[in-house]
């Protein structure tokens, strides 16, 4: 099933990338029927893209955060923390970007936001999500599990100091001020980072912008988990994916060119005529693949014994197919119930499930969010990861610091004209 998904993921990545031929009209839009699921998968292509610089000089950087001898040899390919840097020619404000669930520093959305901020005159340091395998592997061992937002923020905060110090030392980067943003789970992490910085005062963030954050991490992952039940319906899911794969591959074979541009991707999806249920399946499977990669990295680094035998030293080129197969069947909610919650309760005796759930969301820092003028939120009214009433909650907490777009699904409009125009009012920087 993963082979089918790799092909589909390749198409989705191409659709969400920044490919653009020089002769393509930038304000072109697609004619796909709009739904929030379509916008989440292919992007909000019914609105024109914003014109952003194509030649942003992004430098791929790495940093030893965890001693290499503490990293299992199986992860030989991931023995340093990776991040991206885009630097201006002289002194400038600096913005950190935190990726969403399971995403790396160079994810398509991180790179889009990098282009937006760079065009506004910012140095940009883009970081992976704490739920990304490279982050988990290279973060010093903690008593807490990945996904505990406050403790994730502490790991991110330490990394931010280290990456900026390295950028200063090796690339001559000098920041005149600091800001932070992030999309999806990275948006929630940005809020917790802002609160942490109020006491640590290493950055004194000038601006904090949360992009499509979950109000409750548990609520959002419950929604995404509901889109696919691999454990009980593997055959049915495989059959549906095979059907989607066949329609997409038939459309690809009928093209006059093998080149994948925005237009050809949109034509493929238009020809496939996917239903919302099929789009939800793609979204759910994509989330499950990210979460299974996260769970395997956690199982290895914490020696939990859930996916591999406890205390078994996985060799450098040992096959882990059986472990990944098992990881594919585990919903994120079970990770919370069976791993995160018990481990945290061992560290904090007396912690209730309800109290733990509360701190996995914005309501745990509501007072701070409602009173801090430097924090704003950008969201979509039809975002698929929010439960009913959560958009109204954000409006109530943030007031006029909340910008709610009518459409866009989950992060589908990040590179669209209206989004970028508002983003530029938040990050004034030193526009070029």
Tags for this entry?
single chain; 432 residues; Rossmann fold; eight-stranded mixed sheet
pLDDT under 50 segments (min length 5)? 1-11, 13-26
**What is the strand tally?**
8
- Helix amount: 40-55%
Largest sheet: 8 strands, mixed
Shape: globular
CATH class call:
Alpha Beta
Mean pLDDT: 86
Number of domains: 1
Radius of gyration: 21 Å
What is the percentage of strand-forming residues? 5-15%
CATH architect. name: 3-Layer(aba) Sandwich
> Could you give the order of the helices and strands?
HHEEEHEHHEHEHHHHHHHHEHEH
Verbal overview:
By secondary structure, the protein is an alpha/beta fold. It has one domain: Rossmann fold (3-Layer(aba) Sandwich). Strands 1-2-4-3-5-6-7-8 form an eight-stranded mixed beta sheet, with helices on both faces. Helix 5 crosses helix 6, helix 8 crosses helix 9 and helix 10 packs across helix 11. The longest helix has 27 residues. The relative contact order is 0.17.
């Amino acid at each position: 099933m993963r082979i089918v998904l790799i092909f589909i993921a390749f198409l989705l990545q191409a659709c969400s990338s920044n490919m653009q031929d020089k002769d393509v009209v930038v304000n072109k839009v697609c004619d796909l029927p709009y739904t929030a699921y379509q916008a989440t998968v292919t992007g909000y292509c019914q609105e024109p893209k914003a014109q952003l610089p194509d030649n942003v000089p992004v430098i791929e950087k790495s940093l030893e955060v965890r001693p290499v001898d503490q990293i299992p040899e199986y992860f030989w390919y991931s023995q340093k923390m990776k991040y991206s840097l885009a630097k201006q020619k002289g002194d400038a404000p600096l913005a950190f970007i935190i990726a969403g669930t399971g995403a790396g520093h160079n994810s398509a959305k991180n790179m889009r936001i990098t282009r937006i901020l760079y065009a506004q005159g910012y140095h940009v340091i883009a970081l992976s999500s704490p739920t990304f395998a490279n982050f988990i592997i290279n973060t010093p061992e903690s008593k807490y599990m990945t996904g505990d937002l406050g403790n994730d923020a502490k790991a991110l905060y330490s990394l931010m100091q280290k990456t900026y110090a390295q950028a200063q030392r090796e690339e001559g980067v000098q920041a005149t001020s600091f800001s932070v943003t992030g999309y999806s789970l990275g948006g929630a992490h940005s809020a917790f980072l802002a609160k942490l910085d109020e006491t640590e005062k290493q950055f004194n963030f000038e601006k904090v912008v949360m992009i499509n954050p979950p109000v409750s991490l548990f609520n959002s992952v419950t929604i995404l988990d509901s889109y696919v039940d691999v454990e009980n319906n593997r055959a049915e899911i495989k059959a549906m994916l095979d059907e989607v794969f066949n329609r997409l591959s038939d459309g690809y074979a009928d093209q006059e060119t093998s080149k994948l541009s925005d237009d050809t991707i949109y034509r493929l999806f238009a020809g496939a005529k996917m239903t919302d249920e099929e789009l939800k399946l793609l979204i759910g499977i994509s989330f499950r693949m990210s979460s299974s990669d996260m769970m395997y990295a956690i199982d290895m680094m914490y020696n939990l014994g859930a996916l591999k035998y406890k205390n078994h030293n996985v060799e450098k080129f040992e096959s882990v197919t059986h472990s990944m197969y098992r990881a594919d069947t585990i919903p994120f909610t079970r990770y919370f119930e069976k791993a995160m919650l018990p481990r945290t309760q061992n560290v904090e005796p007396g912690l209730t499930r309800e109290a733990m759930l509360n701190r996995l969301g914005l309501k745990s820092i509501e007072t701070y969010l409602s009173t801090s003028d430097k924090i704003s939120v950008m969201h979509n009214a039809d975002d698929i990861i929010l439960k009913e009433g959560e958009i109204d909650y954000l409006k109530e907490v943030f007031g006029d610091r909340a910008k709610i777009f009518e459409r866009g699904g989950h992060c589908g409009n990040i590179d669209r004209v209206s989004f970028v125009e508002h983003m530029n009012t938040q990050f004034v920087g030193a526009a070029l």
